[in-house]
Amino acid sequence: MRTLYFLLFSFCLPSIAFSEYGFDKLRCQGKLIERGMSLYEVKKLCGEPLFEKEDKNDYRTFVYMTYKNGPSSHYYLLFRNDSLEASRAEMNQHGEYIWQNPNTIRNR
């Protein structure tokens, strides 16, 4: 019976934690950071990022942010017009490098 519960838990947990394909969820102050949250909401929960870059023109604004999660992993967040669009967790990366090609955050 324990084995059955363990197997069910093992298979269900990833589907709960990563419910949206290609969107790695970050947890700040016990709350999940989810697609559609505003830049203000994320900064309020997670504090100031390690890296932040704004790319703006007359039609849209992109904000790229990096948060550290543990000793060797980072979360990369992409906001479009103040709404969180993408989130990706990476191991052993250095803040800005993923932003040299922002499309890498969307393509897995």
Helix content: 10-25%
- Within the largest sheet, what's the order of strands? 3-4-5-6
Number of strands: 6
Uncertain parts: 4-19
Distance from N terminus to C terminus (CA atoms, Å) equals 37 Å
Give the tally of structural domains.
1
- Main β-sheet, in a few words? 4 strands, antiparallel
User: How large is the share of residues in beta strands?
Assistant: 25-35%
Name given to the CATH architecture: 2-Layer Sandwich
Order of helices and strands: HEEHEEEE
Mean pLDDT: 75
What does this structure look like?
The protein has one domain (22-105): 2-Layer Sandwich (Beta-lactamase Inhibitory Protein, Chain:B, domain 1), CATH 3.30.1450. The radius of gyration is 16 Å and the shape is globular. Strand 3 and strand 4 form a beta hairpin. It starts with a helix and ends in a 17-residue tail after the last strand. It is an alpha+beta fold and 108 residues long. The protein has 2 helices and 6 strands; from the N terminus they run H-E-E-H-E-E-E-E. The relative contact order is 0.16.
Can you summarize this structure?
The chain has a single domain, classed as Beta-lactamase Inhibitory Protein, Chain:B, domain 1, CATH 3.30.1450.10. It is an alpha+beta fold and 108 residues long. A hairpin with a 2-residue loop joins strand 5 (73-80) and strand 6 (83-91).
Secondary-structure blueprint of this entry?
Blueprint: H1 2-17, E1 26-28, E2 31-33, H2 39-46, E3 51-56, E4 61-68, E5 73-80, E6 83-91
Antiparallel strand pairs: 1-2, 3-4, 4-5, 5-6
Which descriptors apply to this entry?
signal; 6 strands; DUF2845; Beta-lactamase Inhibitory Protein, Chain:B, domain 1; 4-stranded antiparallel β-sheet; 108 residues; plasmid; Protein of uncharacterized function (DUF2845); 34% strand; alpha+beta; two-stranded antiparallel sheet; 2 helices
